[in-house]
Design a protein that fits this description.
The chain is of the alpha/beta class and 414 residues long. It has helices at residues 33-43, 73-77, 92-102, 116-119, 124-131, 156-162, 183-206, 216-222, 227-234, 268-278, 292-297, 299-310, 315-324, 335-340, 342-346, 383-389, 394-402, and strands at 24-27, 47-52, 82-86, 107-110, 136-141, 211-215, 251-256, 259-264, 329-331, 350-353, 356-359.
């Protein structure tokens, strides 16, 4: 008798489940920090339900550029992987729908002005915790609920100014400058994700959810490394250094024949290797440059020597050869140049699918890899699907739509 296994059909490939498969997240957040956080959770397998107000998430309108559906590229950058419903939470019936969605949710995330949830009868301690003891409620605010600035709205660039980030960013001749990306919002999104994962780990041990509080103010201050520590130890106010580092030299931007590079030398061994390669073999033995401390004291003379040596060299070849020698260096690329790098493709850091273009997930798990399964949703695209799962009948859904509790897109003109 022949072995039937020789003729058996091959088993279909089983895709590994995401690390957060089975986690349900109700996302009431808008703009950047909250949506970025929930997009990262969705990339790792969470079922994220994006709940938008009648006017939609503001970032849908922050264009051009826009996609084929008319949504701004800004919106698509932080909302893939989610299902979307429209819901008017200002009305009691809308809040009843939200409570029904929370019945089997693990995480609720929102970035309303403090007091908004309590005004709606959705305060965590008073209303949600007794009803949903396993729920993790992540609140993202500008400054928190209390304190001298408590309750005020927060915006990335304003926080960059208030928390000292602008004071250390920019050239002396040009003055303080906003960091070119909304870095406070970005890091707040990552901080919120970390807080949620910590709370999930705590719930796994105790069975209880909790409130996770993240503020743009705290996040902005946390970015001041090493500048705040330097000031705390010396009482000297940090100033503008351009691209230079306050504690390391040479750690700066330098001109080459066909562009600029960033040279990141962090120890004496790397400095000697760089000098030998660049035709400056005597520099490491010069008392002005023999140690990092000495180089910091003579950074202007050091810059002149380095730029003279690099002025005739080609940018990309120089960086490639220095990196092979163990000297950190990279070309100062434009955004298109950054995504044109072969390593960008190798790492899967650009996603192009069915008209969607985005940045790939930055975290890789060997046993539960991230993946992009859902494109950014149209407004209220999944309302019926989500509410049916929550136990609503078609007649109930139709009635809620008729009452405006489940708004549709585009919103009515005033």
């Amino acid at each position: 008798m022949s072995d039937s296994s020789e003729h058996a059909a091959p088993s279909p490939e089983v895709r590994p489940r995401g690390a957060l498969d089975g986690l349900r997240v109700i996302d009431l957040s808008r703009v950047l920090a909250g949506p970025l956080c929930t997009q990262m959770l969705a990339d790792q397998g969470a079922d994220v339900i994006k709940v938008e107000p009648p006017g939609g998430d503001e970032t849908r309108t922050l264009g051009p550029p826009v996609n084929a559906d008319g949504d701004a590229a800004y919106f698509t950058a932080v909302n893939r992987g989610k299902r979307a419903i429209g819901l008017d939470l200002s009305k009691p019936a809308g809040r009843d729908v939200l409570l029904a969605l929370l019945a089997d949710a693990d995480v609720l995330i929102e970035n309303f002005i403090p007091g908004t949830m309590a005004k709606w009868g959705l305060d965590y301690e008073a209303d949600l915790k007794p009803r949903f003891p396993q729920l993790i409620h992540c609140a993202i605010t500008g400054f928190g609920e209390d304190g001298p600035l408590g309750g005020l709205p927060g915006y990335d660039a304003v926080l960059q100014a208030m928390c000292g980030l602008m004071s250390i960013n920019g050239e002396p001749a040009g003055g303080p400058t906003r960091v070119g990306v909304p870095i406070v919002d970005h890091l707040t999104g990552y901080t919120a994700q970390s807080g949620i994962l910590l709370a999930l780990y705590h719930r796994a041990r105790t069975g209880l959810g909790q409130r996770v509080e993240v503020t743009l103010f705290d996040t902005a201050l946390s970015l001041l490394v090493p500048h705040a520590a330097n000031w705390m130890h010396t009482d000297q106010t940090p100033g503008l250094l351009g691209s230079a580092h306050p504690n390391i030299a040479p750690y700066d931007r330098y001109a080459c024949r066909d562009g600029e590079i960033f040279l990141g030398v962090v120890n004496d061994r790397q400095f000697r290797r760089f000098c030998d390669y660049a035709g400056l073999p005597s520099l490491p033995d010069d008392p002005r440059f023999a140690t990092n401390r000495a180089r910091l004291s003579h950074r202007d003379a050091l810059r002149d020597a380095i730029e003279s040596a690099l002025a005739t060299r080609a940018r990309d070849a120089l960086c490639a050869e220095l990196m092979k020698l163990g000297v950190p260096a990279g070309p100062v690329n434009s955004v298109p140049e950054a995504f044109a790098q072969a390593h960008t493709a190798h790492r899967g850091m650009r996603v192009d699918r069915d008209g969607y273009h985005g940045i790939g997930p930055a975290v890789r798990l060997s046993q539960a890899p991230a993946r992009v399964d859902r494109l950014p949703p149209a407004y209220a695209q999944h309302t019926v699907e989500v509410l049916r799962e929550a136990g609503f009948g078609d007649s109930q859904i139709a009635a809620l739509q008729e009452q405006g509790i489940l708004p549709r897109w585009p919103p009515p003109k005033p």
